[in-house]
Structure formats: structure tokens, C-alpha cells
Amino acid sequence: MVNSRRKFKKTRNTPKTCFSQSSMEDSDHHSTQSGALVGSSDDLLTEILLRLPVTSILRFKSVSKHWRLLLTHTHFTRRYDINNLSKSPGLFAGDIYVPYDVENPSPPPCSNLGSYFDRPRVRIMQSCNGLLLCSTHGPKGSRAAPTYYVFNPTTKQLALIPPIHECVKVCKTIRFMGLAYHQTDCPHYKLVCVRLLEPDRDLFQIQIYSSDTREWKISIETFSVPSHVFQQGVYWNGAVYWVTKYHKYLYFKLDVEKLQMQPLPMRSRGRLHLIATYFGDSRGCLHLIPYHNHQHYRLPLNVYEMFSDHSSWFVKYQVVLNAIPGAFPDTISRYAFSYDFKVIDVVRGEEEEEEDTFVVLKIRENIIKYNVHDKSFKHIYSLPRPSCFHENSFHRYTETLSSF
Predict the structure, then answer these.
(1) CA–CA dist 394, 362 (Å, integer)
(2) Measuring CA to CA, which of 20, 31, 55, 179 is 20 to 30 A from 141?
(3) d(CA 372, CA 359)
(4) In terms of C-beta density within 10 A (0-12 exposed, 13-18 middle, 19 or more buried), how is residue 203 classed?
(5) What is the mean pLDDT of residues 279-284?
(6) Is the pLDDT assigned to residue 370 strictly greater than 90?
(7) What are phi and psi of 34, to 5 degrees?
(8) What is the pTM (predicted TM-score) of this model?
(9) Euclidean distance between CA atoms 209 and 397, whole angstroms
(10) Degrees, nearest 5: CA angle 306-311-314
(11) Position 15 pLDDT exceeds 60
(12) What is the Cα–Cα distance from 147 to 161, expressed in whole angstroms?
């Protein structure tokens, strides 16, 4: 029997790749030169780092003091946030993190939210372009006034907000506390506080806190509006907006510090008032999903978008949910002509890929992700105690390197 393996070894005549000592030294020399070039040029290094995920940026802060200064400088953090178009990989349901992508889930930005605070009973009040407005209320049964914080869950930076007044009685007059922040039009975050001065006359006052001055100031001394106006507040395009189930929609322009009326997306009919099932912004666009009271939810839902000049609303998307009741029978209410679910987020896709736009729904314990364009839906999470989560329990997580 012929030993073909041995014969093949003898007769095989293929060119060999040889690395001489000099060629390897040249390669190492060129690699060293390239590394030195990148390391010595902040502009070139910045362009490379801007293309990395946020987890890499956080890890690279420990490379050296120079890299840490570079990665925490305002010039870099703002460019990074703008380049990444305010990426929103998930949301907080209370203190539970729910990733939007179930196939490639993003890790939680923080494992235990309460561990970053010095007081118990932490509650997220609002999410605004990556920053969270949180409050703590002391031990259960305590009558102490809440303490407010601004927290960046990406960088874990925490800022304690000084109280408006030390008197607990004054703190109990607060009817709205909202966060205003954006990387371009409001880089120094602000808090807008609405206090009820005289309940009998619905007399209010607005105070503003700025992270730049670190002080509170009275903006509007007194004004009178119906007491239920300040329910859902959203910062967008230089102003804080409120929507209610009544006829007045107000917004507060921060640059001129004035209250102004905003138009309704559709007319109220008789005793039927508009109720906002969802109100929020995504990728620089303000969205509203309203319906008339006593009609409950009807399908489809219209997602309205506000024109950038604050002049009016237009229907941006029509969310057709006809297939949802078949997959989730709990959606159908006992009245059979309406639907029992909550819209908890509207997330816009990238400008060139609008097909990525989706709506997030809560149906009992189920959190559903619904694609607006191909009308597909996917179950992404089951809440452990669904009755404990109300509409104000859900807050979008947006990655940001902003520091304050």
C-alpha cells in the first residue's frame, strides 16, 4: 500500500510565506508609529472614539488621565451625543430596566438604582434626553419633604438639588417639578417648579433652578389657571409643555420665561374632552396620542406631531393595532367596544431609516413593541406585579455622556 501522505509531503511544492527578522521589525515599527500618531493627535483620536459604543467610552476613561480629560470634555460629550442621535436602547419600569431589543438586549445602565442615593424610596419622576429627575421621600411614614436629584444613569453622576424652601409647608405647595435639558438648546439643565399659592383662586407661581448658577429664582410671580393644567410635562424645543383633559394646553418658553397657549390637535365636542394617552418627544419631535373621554381607546390610534414653530399639530403616524386583540385577548375591555392598554413610549427611528419607528404598549403585565411601518409586534417583557405600575412608572433610557 502506497503511503500517499508521505509522498504528498515530499512532492508538494507550494511557496512558503517567510517573515524575515527585518520585515517583522519594519511591521512593528510601522504599527508603533501608527499608534503613536493616533495617540498624539487628539483630533484623530476623537474621530475614532466618536464611532465607539458608550460602554467602550466609559471603559476607556481609565486608560490614562489624558484620555479621561478628553472623553469628559464638553466638546467631545456633545459631539458624541449628537452623532449617536440620542440612542434609546430601553426604558425604566420603576427601577426595572427593560431593553427594547430582545434578540440583542443592552445591559442595564445600573444594576440597583437605589444604591446611588443616600436616602431610601427612590422614584424616577421624569426622563429628559438622558438625564433622570428623581426624588426620595425618606422612610415609609415619614412626613419629610421629598428630596430631588438629577441622575445620569449612563455615567452614574448624581446631583442633589437644593430645596426651594426649608419649610415643609412650602414644599407641599409644589404641583409640578420638571426637568429641562438638551445637549444643544439647554446644555445646563434646569428645573421648572410650579407652586400653588392660593388654592381658592387657583393662583400659581413658577420658579426655576439652573445647574449653571445652582440657585432657585422666581420666574413668574403669580398667575391664574385651572388647577389640573400641570399634569403631564415634557421639555421640547426650548419649552416645557403640559397637556390636560381640558381645553387649555400651555407651554412655558424658558428663554423669555413666558406662559403661552398651544393649539389642540383636534376639537373637543360638547362635553367630550381630549385626554392624552401618550405625550413625549423622540429625536427632536414632540408626539401626542389623544382620544375623547367616554370613548376609551379605539383603533387605530393617531400619533400627532407638533410643528417646530409651535403653531399646530399634524398626524404623523396612524397606528393600526387590529391584530393585537387576537394575540392578547386581555386588550379587549369588558365593554367590548374599547381596548384596555397603555401607550408608554413612541421611539422614532433614524432620519434615513424611519421604518425603525415603534410604539411601546402595556397590556396588563405584557410590554409589547409595535413597529409602525410593517405593523409587526413583539412581546419584550412581562412585568412581575402589573398592578403596581401606573402610567407614570415608565421612563425612557437614553444614552448620554453629559456631565454637570
Answers:
(1) 10
(2) 179
(3) 7
(4) middle
(5) 93
(6) yes
(7) -65, -45
(8) 0.84
(9) 23
(10) 40
(11) no
(12) 7
